[in-house]
Design brief:
This protein is an alpha/beta fold. The chain is built from 21 helices and 22 strands. The strands form five sheets. A six-stranded parallel β-sheet has the order 3-2-4-5-7-6, with helices on both faces. Strands 11-10-9-12-13-14 form a six-stranded parallel β-sheet, sandwiched between helices. It is globular, with a radius of gyration of 24 Å.
Length: 560
């Protein structure tokens, strides 16, 4: 049966698509414009309620959309053109996939009659993105625009959230249709039952040394509040997975740290020694399980209660003692109403683990005049609870990941996928989402030059961010591994950098070079008050590879 309705006015597919975006609550999109979707850009002129953020690279645009999805819980929307734009955006799609973030990439495509001729910038979107996205498709029939756009939003937000990729053939966009509009999407989520709740609380009542682990996608400020309330009511130790530290207020007496790269050995040992692990939201991926060594495969030694929104994740690696299909928020809404009948026997263990966390997050001194620990401690004391700290990938990220203590949900934006270049675009998105908040991007000299040009986007959008750039003249993480396995044989990891202060100024930002710790506080305060973006370049001794290691020591250890 035809979807056309002759009683409805005829509009182009492009105008229908933009109207559907507005109907689904989109108020901001990120893009690098392309001639393949000029009809969409034209239609957006008549929808001023949708703000278009013009970016400088599709990778930056996609990472902004991903960060937007993380912070708002609504799909971040990004537009790109054909093969070059789509493949540039793929890094952000991968971040959204591994971080379980709702996101939709719309790609302008070649005309349908040119397919399979290797036409100009042709790409098979379905084949290219089938392993990166939850769903990859194209709108081959113009009349199906409302249907496919609605499905894209539904898919991106339901179950385990994730990215969707939709192709838009340029000739399709100009066809006229009369298809009725779709209703606004409503995410579908499984919910914990009262029987599940009873099973969990009964198991806790019989446990001697349980631990809770939180992480994954689909969280919110409400879920984070409920997680803290539940953990504290049961005086249960709770750990966050890699780069999910803001899921529980780090000031909570139940919070005991995060299971990231280089996790606290005492925390890892405590989880191994637990008799019950309650994992909520997390996939229990490789980083957070210490390269899949934290639990036995397929049968963990601990009683594993695994709560996840996707049935495909339950038993995928670890067979749980009890698997519960539920969103984290739905599960915590029930669990937060429970409390033990008596003081749990493990409360002293929780207190000891908490003290271990506080000691682990006390920054050490490092050689040289610039003390990164003192700088992170200053930020920890200076920034309000709702300030957002972003970071990309590199050894510099150890400083904010290990030593900063996150309070509110949304105060941390970082890719569990370990993608470089995330810090600046995500900071811009955070400032656009919450203009009243302070947003600080932690980046390295290698990380920054992946997407640092998005400072131009921050200037255009009048959304000032503060960039703290740790410059040690190398790809630090790779050099660390290189020195560990091939000491003294440096290859491909040394960088030749621009003058970062002048580069910042060229983008209209304030730039300051900092070589001594005592210079930082005044520079940071000036950055807060200058009314534009700022880049604070921290010049670090290249011999310092991590907070506790130097290249010299790594070489000596290898030869010992």
């Amino acid at each position: 049966m035809s979807q056309r309705d002759p009683s409805r006015p005829r509009i182009t597919a492009a105008r229908s698509l933009v109207a559907e975006l507005a109907r689904h609550g989109v108020d901001r999109i990120f893009c690098v414009p392309g001639e393949s979707f000029l009809s969409v850009l034209d239609a957006l002129v008549d929808h001023p309620e949708i703000r278009v953020v013009t970016c400088r690279h599709e990778g930056g645009a996609a990472m902004m959309a991903e960060a937007w999805g993380k912070l708002t819980g609504r799909p971040g929307v990004v537009f790109a053109t054909r093969a070059p734009g789509a493949t540039n955006a793929s890094a952000g799609i991968h971040v959204a996939r591994q971080d379980s973030t709702p996101m939709i990439l719309f790609v302008g495509q070649i005309a349908r009659d040119a397919r399979e001729r290797e036409a100009f910038q042709e790409i098979d979107l379905r084949a290219t993105f089938s392993s990166l996205a939850k769903w990859a498709s194209e709108i081959d029939i113009a009349a199906r625009v409302p249907e496919i756009v609605a499905r894209a939003f539904q898919t991106a937000t339901s179950g385990r959230p994730g990215p969707v990729v939709i192709g838009m053939p340029e000739d399709m966009l100009d066809e006229e249709i009369t298809t009725p509009a779709a209703h606004r999407y409503q995410p579908s989520q499984a919910r914990m039952t009262s029987d599940d709740e009873t099973a969990v609380t009964d198991a806790l009542g019989n446990a001697k040394n349980p631990v809770m682990i939180v992480g994954g996608g689909g969280w919110s400020a409400d879920a984070a509040h409920l997680a803290r309330r539940f953990a504290e009511a049961w005086q249960m130790p709770v750990a966050a997975t890699f780069r999910c530290q803001d899921y529980v207020d780090n000031r909570s007496e139940s919070y005991i740290g995060n299971l990231g790269l280089g996790a606290n050995p005492d925390l890892v040992a405590a989880i191994r020694d637990s008799d019950l692990v309650l994992a909520i939201g997390t996939r229990l991926e490789d980083v957070s399980t210490n390269s899949y060594s934290l639990f036995g495969i397929p049968l963990p030694a601990q009683r594993l209660i695994h709560v996840h929104a996707d049935t495909g994740e339950l038993g995928r690696v670890y067979q749980p003692w009890l698997g519960i299909v539920s969103s984290a928020q739905a599960a915590l809404r029930l669990l937060a109403e429970t409390a033990p009948r008596a003081r749990p026997a493990w409360h002293e263990r929780t207190q000891a683990l908490r003290q271990g966390y506080l000691a682990w997050t006390t920054p050490p001194a490092i050689p040289g005049p610039l003390q990164m620990g003192a700088i992170v401690s200053y930020l920890r004391d200076r920034l309000p609870d709702d300030a957002t700290i972003t970071n990309g990938a590199g050894n510099f990220a150890i400083w904010p990941n290990r030593f900063f203590r996150y309070r509110d949900f949304g105060s941390m934006l970082a890719p569990t996928s370990g993608s470089m270049g995330y810090a600046v675009p995500s900071a811009v998105a955070a400032k656009l989402a919450f203009p009243e908040r302070i947003v600080v991007a932690f980046t390295g000299d290698g990380d920054f030059l992946m997407t640092g040009q998005e400072l131009a986007t921050a200037a255009r959008e009048q959304s000032p961010v503060i960039v703290i750039l740790v410059n040690n003249g190398m790809y630090g993480t790779i050099r660390m591994h290189q020195e560990t396995h091939f000491p003294g044989r440096v290859s491909a990891t040394t960088l030749t950098n621009p003058d970062f202060v002048k580069l910042a100024e060229a983008y209209g930002a304030m730039g300051v070079r900092i070589t001594h710790t005592e210079q930082f506080a005044s520079a940071f305060e000036e950055a807060l008050s200058c009314g534009r973006s700022a880049l604070l370049e921290l010049v670090l001794d290249p011999d310092i590879i991590t907070p506790t290691q130097t290249i010299t020591a790594l070489r000596a250890a290898k030869h010992a």
